[in-house]
Amino acid sequence: MRVVKKFGGSSVATTEKIKNIAKDIAKNYKHGDEVVIVVSAMGKTTDELIKLAKEISKTPDVRELDSLLSIGEQQSISLLSMALKEEGCKAISLTGAQAGIKTGGVHTKNKIESIKADRIENHLQNGEIVIVAGFQGVNENGDITTLGRGGSDTSAVALAAALKCECEIYTDVTGIYGVDPRVYVNAKKLDKISYEEMMEMANLGAGVMETRAVEIGKKYGVRIYVGQTLGVETGTYICDNSEIIEKKAVTGISINKNVIMVNLENFSAIPKNVATIFNNLAEHSINVDMISQNEVENVKGSIGFTCPLTDEHFLNNSLKDIKKHIPEIELTKRTGVIKISLVGIGMISNFGVAAKVFEVLSDIDAQFYQCTTSEISISLIIKESDAVKVVERLAQVFSI
Amino acid sequence: MRVVKKFGGSSVATTEKIKNIAKDIAKNYKHGDEVVIVVSAMGKTTDELIKLAKEISKTPDVRELDSLLSIGEQQSISLLSMALKEEGCKAISLTGAQAGIKTGGVHTKNKIESIKADRIENHLQNGEIVIVAGFQGVNENGDITTLGRGGSDTSAVALAAALKCECEIYTDVTGIYGVDPRVYVNAKKLDKISYEEMMEMANLGAGVMETRAVEIGKKYGVRIYVGQTLGVETGTYICDNSEIIEKKAVTGISINKNVIMVNLENFSAIPKNVATIFNNLAEHSINVDMISQNEVENVKGSIGFTCPLTDEHFLNNSLKDIKKHIPEIELTKRTGVIKISLVGIGMISNFGVAAKVFEVLSDIDAQFYQCTTSEISISLIIKESDAVKVVERLAQVFSI
């Protein structure tokens, strides 16, 4: 069997850990599998490199930053290759460039454009384990590029697509849970989750997998397994919807604390004004989410939206600007709130989900400030103090 | 003016030091010079990487070791490039591969085969400072290679040869001295030294410059300047013999404490026996130096040689072997000795040098155990306890 296995930074944080995963990989190898490994930089290496760069410059040149950051993965692939040879395996490490990973876009936020996998195929045919540096590639100028945070997941899934095999992502957690087990102790681990649900969960702040990696998985039909490094428990498969027989109405609930809510009222909600508002927010680089508009009367409007709490400083500046352009507008900001999102591919055919959600809120007398929906999700802004109670009850009701 | 400047590991050991040399380089740049910089890894980075590799394997795979060690220089070039941009310079960092440095030979001990300098030329024409990773290149398989210890000097001089310009080597010391100033406080710094003398000095253990770098300098006529990083004193030029007007009989005295002396006596010094001895020493990887043979009678011979004290363990094994093959042989080992070598291109035309040396030894009643000569050097084995006195007196006699 051919497989791409990816190990994150905490799995290769020390030479001791590297030796342990080498022992584990050696078992696959001796079993006759064709194995490609993708690794991240050891532990906090990337953060330390960024710190060095910041000591030199507040705004380090991005081409140089890419070249600098890429050494973290080059270190871990070499060490892992040495460790695999100690275990009696044939092994070879390849940088992103050597592995044929071509990227485009802007430095520090590159995207994989293509993978020329000939060299990897040759090494596999030669009976070697191929260890590829995650997070990096090479652009058309021959410059080293990086894929941004979480880029090693993307490297792994893209390689699996090019090599037409499954991708296994090894991490600290035992799999993907419907609800964060730190919030709800009875949370169940999912056996399977669809690409669409996982993407929605990732976007909504679940933080287990990089969205881009799941997108590539969906596009090329790569089954992605998420499990614990050296763990014994079976993890979770991210796979095509058609593989999931029993489609639950709600697969997971994501919880996002980094949120602030804004209401704009008592102004003329004509397109010109609405455009002014959102252009201004964009100019201040504010990541606007959950927009809802209610027409109160014929001419007076009310618009609500959320944005990350970490953008509050920019938000304040933007709101001042907006007030200058539309003096009659009334602004209210609400903090101490939390966004919970119910995600489920089954929602498309389960019309009663929203009704059940509101019933739960009513039962426990929890107020909600805003609600938006997509085809496969419902998001609510509630009081932070109500969050645990609401999540627990929803998890029970939907058997998550 | 076009120039290649090389900075060693201690000159770029911290981000603070990197910023300081960036300020200095910026002056050249703003003066309109075309500047290529070669840097080593920061401080002890290479040693730390070797330590990591040794934690994984006692005999790390050499291809992987090369890939691992190369990241040290990749780190320093990126950081220096960022620092130069902070100083308002246009700058770009290039790995060995990106700079077109092609190598051949075996991993960890590669040799530069050719430099395709087109990319560097383009960047220079574009008004950029080009920062090249020392110590590394790429082989015909596209694998990263390193040049062995001191390889950054070699990179710098080879680049200067390809770019047809001078090479400046910046280091901890203010230049090249005729005698180690730690041994003889009145030692004089040389303004100039010929390639041949420098190579002889380096081989004899002076340790300032890598011999290979000087060899390349000689072959391609690259003038090499050795001076102190950010220092104000003028350093030393390594240049062609023809540039040196006043040819001193003795330019320098090198001192080597890492030496053990062996005498083999009372055996038939026929070629077969001599071959047996030196083949055996070679099989035990002993670096034999200063061979002298004296025929005592018609058939009985005596052979003396020296080798590094650090090889003593291998030497003992070899001597046991030799005794098995030639049972009548008598072996004596002498430690507590030191090798001093007088080097001077002027020696060729100064026949009295040896006589003066023996006069000095006689004057201060210093015994010597062995003596060998080359065209431009005389080497002596003396008692370690006599070394300082002998070196001081020789330095005075030859005005070094």
Automatic annotation (TrEMBL), chains A, B:
Record has Amino-acid biosynthesis as a keyword: yes
EC top class named in words: transferase
The EC number(s) this enzyme carries: 2.7.2.4
Gene3D superfamilies for the chain: Acetylglutamate kinase-like (3.40.1160.10), VC0802-like (3.30.2130.10)
Catalytic activity annotation: L-aspartate + ATP = 4-phospho-L-aspartate + ADP
Keywords: Amino-acid biosynthesis, ATP-binding, Kinase, Lysine biosynthesis, Nucleotide-binding, Transferase
Residue span, Aspartokinase ACT domain: 340-398
Sequence similarity: Belongs to the aspartokinase family.
PANTHER family listed in its UniProt record: ASPARTATE KINASE, ASPARTOKINASE 2
Name of the protein: Aspartokinase
